[in-house]
């Protein structure tokens, strides 16, 4: 738009003063503003704003005449201003651009487009908060301001061809589901018995055949659509596309499906085996079914190392981290796979934590990994542990020391990231309701291995309760149970004990101890724990072919 330039003010900063002299003065009115009378001289004030309440009109200011005292055109008339005529007397669009501006959009008096770009409007330039004439701010595709945009459902010929996201769902014209059968989009739709079974992405939206929203009810897609609020929360794969609830593209507009979340899994694997062995195939199928963003294993054996890269590749985890082997842990280590880029990883040994190189009081190194879920908003640290197994006093003492060491590394992390979220998970080798909890040790128990060396930073008495120790760090146990149950917590096949846990200071909204024999893809009544999964249910006893433990899985969101 071409705009006129106002005549510049002809008075210069060397203006003759009101008393007729060029340098002397007796009061401020003798000086041309913004100068003031000081010791008989007209000078600029020493403040950064040079006498201008708006912080303007100082020496060297490229915009003299803007918002200075006495300016008949406040806020306007800057040198070289391409938009003169703003807020001048008689302007029919005060607060906007030039007289007769066809795009007044500032919500001032007389503005025919109220609600757009006003001060305090959290959504300037769009159709929120009752504004029906939006589009004047960033995101205006056509560049023609407010007028002429037909806001509303994108399901008419006009709205499906105007180049705008009329219903603000991030899909424009033929890319919007509502335009599938509306000209000119009807020539590129995927609907009908032929198009929904030809294996082609006919409408170029990345969804093919029965995965396409518009194919519901056609060809082999005889199933119910998954897009209502009820369908997207019922735990059922209503449209049989192997994507239940929020995993389904039809549910992507639901607010609860847009919540940022991360899925974590802990699994004492036992053994992975060679690529040709059944254990490997079952491990891979478990990974695929549970579809965790971060999958962590305990008891990863050094003999399994040759298949590590293959397992990561086939289960689609680009990043992984394996802890060092520890003297008291033998050939076993902790391992994590991640689909989220790993920003930092640590293998914490007892001497690392205590600061004394002679300390040797934990079995497996504690694994720590740091990731960012939402840049600038949600940083997550995951700590993976595998406590000492066994039922002797020495075993319980060692588990308690490992819990203390775990809390120490958590607190060290929080010292650097006080606003980050924390998860501790793994095999604690103890039941949360064990009668042995509360045992008091006043000295080292008998039966400790000769390599064991308690760090000097830990003193007696030592009270045995690893759960309370971790919870005192502000972490709560996720109440994960088997599918369709609220009471079955067991994670260990031989003993039917609950040994594997996830602790978090975040918000868990789905959690489960995975029992493939209860996994039928449906959240059956009565209501119990249910975790949406990927693909199809596994054969019963699949987990038992890979381990003597069950995986524990949780979906987390930042509170």
Structure explained in plain terms:
- The structure is a single chain.
- The protein has 559 residues and is α+β, with helices and mostly antiparallel strands.
- It contains six helices and 16 strands.
- The protein has helices spanning 255-258, 278-290, 308-314, 350-354, 393-416, 466-471, and strands spanning 36-38, 41-43, 261-268, 294-301, 319-322, 332-338, 344-348, 366-374, 378-386, 421-427, 440-441, 462-463, 476-477, 500-504, 507-513, 552-557.
- Strands 5-6-4-3-16-15 form a six-stranded mixed beta sheet, with no helix packed on it. The chain has a six-stranded mixed beta sheet with strand order 7-8-9-10-14-13.
- Helix 5 links the parallel strand 9 and strand 10 (421-427).
- The chain is flat and about 85 Å long.
- The two termini are 47 Å apart.
- The relative contact order is 0.07.
Strand and helix layout:
Elements: E1 36-38, E2 41-43, H1 255-258, E3 261-268, H2 278-290, E4 294-301, H3 308-314, E5 319-322, E6 332-338, E7 344-348, H4 350-354, E8 366-374, E9 378-386, H5 393-416, E10 421-427, E11 440-441, E12 462-463, H6 466-471, E13 476-477, E14 500-504, E15 507-513, E16 552-557
Parallel strand pairs: 3-4, 9-10
Antiparallel strand pairs: 1-2, 3-16, 4-6, 5-6, 7-8, 8-9, 10-14, 11-12, 13-14, 15-16
């Amino acid at each position: 738009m071409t705009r006129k330039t106002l005549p510049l003010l002809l008075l210069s900063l060397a203006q003759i003063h009101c008393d007729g002299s060029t340098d002397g003065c007796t009061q401020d009115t003798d000086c041309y503003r913004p100068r003031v009378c000081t010791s008989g001289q007209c000078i600029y004030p020493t403040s950064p704003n040079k006498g201008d309440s708006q912080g303007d009109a100082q020496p060297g200011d490229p915009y003299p005449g803007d918002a200075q005292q006495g300016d008949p055109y406040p806020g306007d008339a800057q040198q070289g201003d391409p938009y003169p005529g703003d807020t001048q007397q008689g302007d029919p669009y005060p607060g906007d651009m030039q007289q007769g501006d066809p795009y007044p959009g500032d919500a001032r008096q007389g503005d025919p487009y109220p609600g757009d770009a006003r001060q305090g409007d959290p959504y300037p330039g769009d159709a929120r908060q009752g504004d029906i004439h939006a589009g004047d701010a960033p995101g205006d595709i056509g560049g023609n301001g407010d007028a002429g945009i037909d806001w509303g459902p994108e399901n008419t010929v006009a709205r499906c061809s105007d180049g705008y996201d009329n219903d603000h769902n991030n899909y424009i014209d033929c890319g919007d589901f509502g335009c599938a059968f509306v000209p000119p989009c009807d020539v590129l739709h995927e609907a009908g018995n032929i198009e929904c079974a030809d294996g082609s992405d006919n409408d170029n939206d990345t969804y093919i055949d029965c995965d396409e929203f518009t194919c519901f009810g056609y060809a082999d897609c005889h199933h119910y659509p998954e897009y209502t609020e009820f369908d997207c929360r019922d735990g059922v794969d209503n449209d049989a596309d192997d994507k239940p609830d929020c995993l389904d593209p039809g549910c992507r507009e639901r607010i609860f499906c847009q919540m940022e979340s991360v899925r974590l899994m802990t699994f004492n694997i036992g053994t992975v085996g060679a690529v040709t062995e059944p254990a490997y195939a079952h491990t891979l199928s478990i990974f695929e079914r549970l579809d965790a963003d971060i999958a962590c294993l305990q008891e990863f054996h050094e003999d399994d190392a040759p298949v590590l890269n293959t397992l990561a590749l086939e289960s689609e985890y680009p990043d992984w981290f394996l802890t060092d082997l520890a003297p008291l842990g033998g050939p076993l280590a902790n391992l994590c796979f991640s689909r989220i880029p790993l920003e930092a990883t640590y293998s914490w040994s007892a001497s690392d934590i205590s600061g004394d190189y002679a300390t040797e009081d934990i079995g497996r190194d504690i694994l720590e990994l740091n990731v960012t879920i939402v840049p600038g908003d949600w940083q997550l640290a995951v700590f993976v542990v595998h406590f000492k197994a066994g039922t002797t006093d020495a075993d319980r003492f060692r588990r308690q020391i490992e819990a203390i060491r775990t809390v120490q590394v958590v607190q060290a992390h929080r010292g650097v990231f006080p606003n980050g979220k924390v998860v501790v998970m793994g095999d604690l080798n103890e039941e949360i309701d064990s009668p042995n909890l509360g045992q008091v040790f006043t000295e080292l128990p008998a039966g400790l291995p000769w390599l064991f060396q308690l760090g000097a930073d830990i003193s007696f008495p030592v009270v045995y309760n690893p759960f309370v120790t971790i919870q005192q760090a502000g972490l709560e146990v996720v109440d994960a149970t088997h599918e369709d149950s609220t009471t079955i917590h067991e994670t260990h096949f031989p003993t039917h004990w609950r040994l594997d846990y996830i602790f978090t200071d975040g918000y868990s909204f789905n959690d489960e101890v995975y029992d493939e024999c209860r996994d039928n893809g449906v959240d059956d009544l009565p209501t119990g724990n249910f975790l949406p999964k990927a693909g199809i249910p596994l054969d019963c006893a699949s987990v038992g072919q890979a381990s003597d433990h069950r995986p524990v899985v949780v979906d987390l969101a930042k509170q």
